[in-house]
Amino acid sequence: MMRRHLLAALLALSASASAHTAVTGLTPAAFATVSAPKAVQLTFSEPIDLHFATFKVYPFPETGDQLALNRAAADLTKARISVKNDEAVRADTAPKLSGMAARLGLPLKTGLKSGNYAVIWRILSDDGHVVTGQSVFSVR
């Protein structure tokens, strides 16, 4: 009986220690069609250090079904997440981020044109793992 409790406790500890921080909420939601938003809102599974995070929003001319858009957005993430000085081609205002946050409002430039936009991110989990992701929304 004691072994079972010990094993359960060890499994619980190892599961929580290996969990990566995730984006648990995103507005606009993935594949949503919205009027031009003023910001993209991200919610995380735990507070993150914004100093070690990158968030970008790009106009995204890709078309297709959700699978094709996800693949193209993943390719964009790999190609652009580490690029510096790309503010002119982005849809976000490239704010300087610092501190800890469980939620983030990423301001967008005014007058977004209709079409697709890709939100891409790279965050550092509390366990030291880098987590990247992306989402696509459309402006009507």
At the fold tier of CATH, the topology name is Immunoglobulin-like
Total of helices? 2
Classify the helix fraction into a percent range.
10-25%
Q: What's the CATH architecture name?
A: Sandwich
The coarse silhouette is: globular
Rounded average pLDDT: 90
Strand residue percentage: 35-45%
Structural class: alpha+beta
Number of strands: 7
Number of discrete domains: 1
Strand order of the largest sheet: 2-7-6-4
Low-confidence stretches: 5-17
What is the class in the CATH system? Mainly Beta
The termini sit apart by: 61 Å
What is the radius of gyration? Answer: 18 Å
Element-level helix/strand string: HEEEEHEEE
Q: What does the largest sheet look like?
A: 4 strands, mixed
